[in-house]
Design brief:
Layout (H helix, E strand, L loop, with lengths): L10 H7 L16 E4 L5 E3 L1 H15 L7 E5 L5 H11 L2 E4 L20 E4 L6 H10 L3 E5 L10 E4 L5 H18 L13 H4 L4
Parallel strand pairs: 3-4, 3-5, 5-6, 6-7
Antiparallel strand pairs: 1-2
Helix pairs in contact: 1-5, 2-5, 3-5
């Protein structure tokens, strides 16, 4: 399934983090990203497509400066990964419930102007997706097999619930973003490891 081209990280690392393991439900939109269904009923995502979309997300983000990007995660398993990502890249992150209006209501104390938003799940993070839509900025969303893709500009198929999966996603994204910005030039210069992004189980 994933041998044909060079992946961003070794296939074994993707498999260990469970980035490809979906839910027991699938939406029509996510069907093209699904590789198979396991005997226990879990849908499995196509690793090549996961890898491809992580690469696309990094390229898309690299067109923006850190201060123009906002990453939102209501789900607690995403808090450590996005905070570590912020520390390494300088990107603004919002861990916890995102109150509507931060991007649209200039009279709010925490109002911010951003040019692109990434959410770890478009359903719990729907306030951020809706705000981005109102101000007309693109949305990148991590989507599991059961997600809808309304108002999302770039879907990254992945297990968007697991600690290790989210940790690995943000670790790769940080490295690829820094490379695309010319801050580092090769993988070896990236010294952070998965444990910096993901709590041990």
């Amino acid at each position: 399934m994933a041998e044909q081209k060079e992946m961003l990280v070794p296939v074994e690392l993707y498999l260990r983090a469970g980035i490809h393991i979906g839910t027991k439900f699938k939406s029509a939109y996510m069907e093209p990203f699904i590789y198979k269904i396991r005997p226990d009923g879990l849908f499995i995502l196509n690793l090549e497509k996961v890898d491809e979309r992580i690469s696309l997300a990094a390229k898309m983000l690299s067109h923006y400066n850190p201060e123009d990007i906002l990453i939102v995660s209501r789900r607690e398993n995403g808090w450590k990964p996005i905070k570590t990502f912020s520390k390494i890249t300088g990107v603004t992150v919002f861990a916890g419930r995102y109150p509507p209006g931060i991007l649209t209501n200039t009279s709010l104390k925490n109002f911010m102007e951003k040019k692109i938003v990434l959410v770890t799940d478009p359903w719990p993070d729907k306030n951020a997706v809706e705000d981005a839509g109102r101000v007309g900025i693109p949305v990148i969303a991590l989507c599991d097999t059961n997600n809808q893709s309304n108002n999302v500009d770039l879907v990254v198929p992945c297990n968007n619930k697991g600690k290790k999966s989210l940790g690995l996603f943000f670790m790769i994204l940080a490295r690829e973003y820094l490379k695309a910005k010319g801050i580092i030039h090769k993988n070896e210069e990236f010294t952070n490891v998965l444990e910096d992004f993901a709590e041990p189980d």
